Structures
1.
Amino acid sequence: MAMDDVVKQPSEPGRSRRAPLPKPTAVALAHAQLRQSILAERLKPGEWLRQEELATGLSMSRQPIREALRLLGEEGLVELTPHRGARVTPLSLEELEEIYGARIGLEGLIARYAAVKIDEQALETLRLALPRLTALSIAGDVDLYLTEDRAFVEACYAASERPRVCRQIASLRERAERYLRLVFKLGTGFQWVDFSYRLFQACVAHDPDAAEAAAQGALRWTLAQATALFEGRETVDPHGTRALRGG
């Protein structure tokens, strides 16, 4: 059979031309599920992680659990102690300050790029997302609010055309989620999306200074709220209302 005949042959009925995506490995599944459980605090800070219990809960052997814990250790979400095992890394003011210090610098920079380069299609995506964010903040749905807020910010930052920096920001935001949820527990995180609107308006105006101020303002506010919790002080709302997003 000629090569041209092979190329032109139609696919069999019901069979997709596209190769199926590879299934995630047991290690990848264990890593993803344990990571999300830590970020959502289903596994609490400081909690010891027993491989046998985790393996039973995830219906898999101990080997992928062991490897997943090693990966989580590299990410700083799990502490591995010789002869004792693994535990969820405790929350600390030092880590909080490190994460948010890095985010404030990177997100201010990327917001500037995004405001200059964003196009009408991306602006329309942001515009349509804002009412949904407002509704979720009023409803008090933590998981959906954080998911939608992350999608909003990522859609904005993608316009910067700086994918490497965006990946760094996404990683830092995931590490920050445990601290952000502390703020939500007291209700102060459920503020309407003032900073999100400011970021959107800055992008509409293609104003890099305003975009940087909006992105960094949200992060600085969240840092102040979480720091106050660590120090046993009341959280602070600079506007005197429940009107700021968590970041």
Note: The chain has a mean pLDDT of 84.
2.
Amino acid sequence: MPPIISLFNHKGGVSKTTTAFNLGWALAERGNKILIVDADPQCNLTGTVLGFDGVSDFTDFYNQNPNANVSDCLSPIFQATGQSLAPAQITGTTHENLFLLAGNIDLAENETQIAVALSTSTAIPALQNIPGSLCALLRLTAEQNDLDAVIVDMSPSVGALNECFLMGSDYFIVPTSPDYYCNQAISSLARVLPRWNMAVAQFRSQSLLYHFPTQPPKFCGIISQRYRPRSGHPARSFQEWIDIIKDTVLRELVPALTSNAMCISIAEFNASEPADTPYNLANIADFNSLIAQSQKHSTPVYALSDEQLEQVGVVLEKMKASRDDFAETFDALANSVEEIVGIV
């Protein structure tokens, strides 16, 4: 089955959505058929990829494309209609190998049902198939559409919705920003993720119609983002926080995950030819003015054409150089991800 890779950090503002879009596109550029999934009820990935700028855009899309968003696809489970899950209708993007499963704010309304199912399913057997249904939908869709990998963009929370998406995945990556609060978040994940692993153990039973994988997801590494570069490297103050976070990952997160079979080995990490030492997959500088053009044209920063940059002279040349640097960075990241998760 195609691997499901979740991007998760319960600290906001670490560029999860931007990374999901840019990494998905980079993997598609390498000839892979990729689905990016908007599992965040805020639907930022959907709006970015499809170029939406208002509520009416979402409403029109949902009306014209039934069964093309996460919430609608899961409605047979949450509404207990008795119908089985069906593969989602996926939406094409401007890249022929990249597809989207749109988000929907209505998914937030199902959080309580999921939480109840996780905590009381042994007492109420009818709830047992709810937790595993989320990623079961993604696997059905991946198989139906002959996909090579699925990338899930998750919200910044530790709620039941994220618990099910993450624990139903095969791998996960933690985007980070170089600051104190993100370092705190890494320490928190070292406690939260093992608890999640224990909580879903009962839902791995293959006697369930929709069950979690028998093995928990494996941590691939972090991505250090949102820093100001200097001479091609993070400026000193940002590098200090990157180093602190890497140390916290090595001292706290990796041991906690390894003891729960939730982490790739250092040898596996190094074999993927990462840009940095374990477990930092890549350093990705702030996109600056490129991000505005990326959002305007629904195109990754490194895939913007000269015309889409909408500049001239020296400014254009600087933006082109920055764009091309990001192209190399994301291609290298995509290569590492391919090696780790076994995309062939």
Note: The chain is about 45% helix and 10% strand.
3.
Amino acid sequence: MTDAAGDALFRPVRSGNAFEDTVSRLLQTIRLGIVEPGSALPSERDLAARFSVSRDTVRDALRELSRAGYVVAKRGRYGGTFVCDVLPAPQPAAALTADEIDDVLGLREVLEVGAVRSAARRALSATDREALWSRLREVAAAGPEDYRRLDSRLHLAFAEVSGTPSLVGLVADCRSRTNDLLDSIPLLPPNITHSNLQHEAIVDAILRGDEEAAADAMGEHLAGSAALLRGFLA
């Protein structure tokens, strides 16, 4: 689990919809790859404390996610609640208007171009630099079944090294909305190849401290995804 992204999502939920928000937040951590397939979620006690809800609410949320095929409970000394090794196939997003799609994509551009600009102007630690290379290698080696999840982790890593902790939660929320759109269109191998080259350019620019190059590379990357989404969905 990435600490900043985990902290951003494992935060108190709204009390009026505690059960629904707990389910939604847990699904975000799973679908964005913050807790990977086969890995354990925090304990019920820990989740209840982080979300500021009762353990009964957490237990109910985990029970429903188990029924839906996202998590599995394991007993014994090393037991707990684990993310399933194979997750349910994403469901197509509800039809959106062109304006609604533009809203998601516009917010993504504001947040993610800003994130890489901020990251590039910082003096990154060795840990930050290695985290970027690690996430880049993971998504470059990903197969179709893992690509969206590992791509999400890389984009969250850009926000994590931006130096603005509150940005991570905003990027995670926006990425969830974006993934709902991306899951509704096919993975196109030429686009994946192109995206991986753009990812490398973004990471390289951040590590060189070239703010403008990082922003330009991210802008180009997002424009490519936006063109496909508008072409398929608008």
Note: The chain has a mean pLDDT of 90.
